[in-house]
Amino acid sequence: MNSCANQTKPIQFLLNGEKVSVSNADPTQSVLYYLRENKKLMGTKEGCAEGDCGACTVVIGELVNNKPELKTVNACIQFLPTLDGKALFTVENLRQEDGSLHPVQQSMVDHNGSQCGFCTPGFIMSLWNVYNQYQASNTQPDQNEIRSALTGNLCRCTGYRPILEAAQNMFDLPAVEFDSDTLRKDLAEIQHDDALVYDYKGNTFFAPKNIQQLAELKAQYPEATILAGGTDIGLWVNKQFRRLNPIIYIGEIAELKEIAVNDNNLRIGACASLSNAYKAISKYYPEMDEMWERFASRPIRNVGTLGGNVANGSPIGDSMPALISLSAKVVLRSAKGSRTMLLEDLYLDYMKKDMRADEVVEAIHLPLPIPERVFRCYKLSKRYDSDISAVFAAFSLVLKNDIVESCLITYGGMAATPKRATLSEQSLIGKTWNESSVKNAMKIMEQDYAPMSDGRASSDNRMQSAANLLYRFYLETRSENPLSNESLNVFANSADISDIPVRVES
Q: Quick one: how far is CA 308 from the chain centroid?
């Protein structure tokens, strides 16, 4: 093998600045369990155990291009071995050497941001990450940035107003600088070039360093669980009590995190985080901005991956309808080579995909925009933030002189897979893009779908919503609408993605 050694190694990481080594924990033990039960650090709380409430929010630091990068994550669904080579910070780390509170904590006290206090450590850690980011650049976040950073933190007591006030005023207190130079040096000392093989009582966790090692491991262990961000797999353990053995973690493969641009495509590695992937996509398709912000919460987007969302293939996953309507392709990789297919062809039935047991998702290819294409996507859910869609709709239309030349309509939540409305599409192709042709397609849509009823929406509600979203798309894109694609493209071309690892190819 090229070459994942068989000798097991301990998990090594930094905990609040101190190096720790773990060799006696199950590979699926959560970071939250380790903190509370093993280290007796009780500031990090368990609320939902599924990455929704934010009571367990911690901050992870890792080296990216030899610079430390901090991000908030949910400790309840993060497996302990994924910390290898990283730094973990908890609320206990914020107390200053003289015993005083950090400005984030003091501001929460001054503005009465805590009542029962159970959720408070999670809010503190989310705001601490914002504080470090903006304090280093000598700037301050606006309300939108603060609200976005806190989308993964729920509170039943305060109504959020005092917490937002604390966030706005935390920079008014004497500044506390984060020592990124020391973190960079400490992280460099615990890096290793070879793959991690961690075994505890016959339960094995592999962390290959390159795609070839990954492909060979998957060929050797076709039954292995492929772990990326763990935002879904963490629930398999916490809620379904599933035993996962072995686990192949792909978060250490730099190639799978790359985002590259060539003349025709945006290539997104399967392990690029949702935060980085959506930011890159939004440069070319700003119509996805709202979906990007409403897809789960920031801690989930920080570790969740676009490749994982695609590989999971949930019928209510938000990524796939938008990607399918943009004719995205998926690259599958095995030890025998790679193959590429349209993303829509990957999904065969509910949670069934056209993937062999030895294959993994390597990348997603998204065509770059063309001037004639108009595109929109819409998410319907009970909550605006951090909620699963009842219906997700994506529309892509190529118009020539107001005639529909091509049309892709895709929905999530309407069938057992993300599914195109092929009959509705056919009824529009060759027709004038007007109210009459759209309303006819809305009626035909009943032949495309027979949605189910569940706790999120009834079948009738889904059907009516799907049809109405098509009509909304028409209202926004008809020729007499002043909001044209030209104005959106101006925004797209000015989007800044300089802080994510995008490689532009000739």
A: 9
Tell me which residue of 414, 388, 397, 385 sits closest to 321, measured CA to CA.
Answer: 414
pLDDT at 440: 98
List pLDDT tens digits, range 375-391. 999 999 998 888 899 99
Would residue 28 count as lying in a domain? yes
Residue 30 sits in a domain of what CATH number?
3.10.20.30
Residue with tokens 């060539």: 262
Which residues in the chain come in under a pLDDT of 70? Answer: 1-6, 481-506
The residues near 260 (Cβ < 8 Å, ≥ 6 apart) are 266, 267, 502, 503, 504, 505
Question: Is 1 among the domain residues?
Answer: no
Burial class (CB in 10 A: 0-12, 13-18, 19+), 161: exposed
Instruction: Kindly state whether residues 56 and 205 are assigned to the same domain.
Output: yes
- 500 within some domain: no
For position 136, what pLDDT does the model report?
84
**What was the pLDDT predicted at 176?**
96
d(CA 474, CA 434): 8
Domain identity same for 293 and 404: yes
pLDDT for 492 equals: 35
Kindly report each contact of residues 127-130 with a partner whose C-beta sits within 8 Å and lies 24 or more positions away, as own/partner: 127/166, 127/167, 127/170, 128/59, 128/89, 128/94, 128/102, 128/104, 129/59, 129/70, 129/71, 129/72, 130/167
Domain count, the chain: 3
Tell me how far apart the alpha carbons of residues 458 and 32 are, in angstroms, rounded to a whole number: 37
Q: Per the domain annotation, does 308 fall within a domain?
A: yes
**How crowded is residue 432: how many other Cβ atoms within 10 Å of its Cβ?**
14
What integer pLDDT is reported at residue 238 of this predicted model? Answer: 96
End-to-end CA distance of the chain: 34
pTM for the complete prediction?
0.91
Q: Are residues 332 and 285 part of one domain?
A: yes
pLDDT, residue 165, reads 96
Asked if residue 346 and residue 449 are part of one domain, the reply reads yes
Q: Which residues contact 267 (CB under 8 A, 6 or more apart)?
A: 258, 259, 260, 261, 363, 364, 365, 366
Instruction: Report the alpha-carbon distance of residue 133 to residue 131 in Å, rounded.
Output: 6
What's the CA gap between 61 and 68, in Å, rounded?
6
Of all helices (H) and strands (E), which one includes residue 123? helix 120-136
* One domain, residues 351 and 438: yes
401: containing domain: 254-490
> Considering Cα of 91, then 96, then 100, then 103, what sign does the dihedral take?
negative
Q: How much is the pLDDT for 496?
A: 42
**Same-domain check for residues 484 and 364:** yes
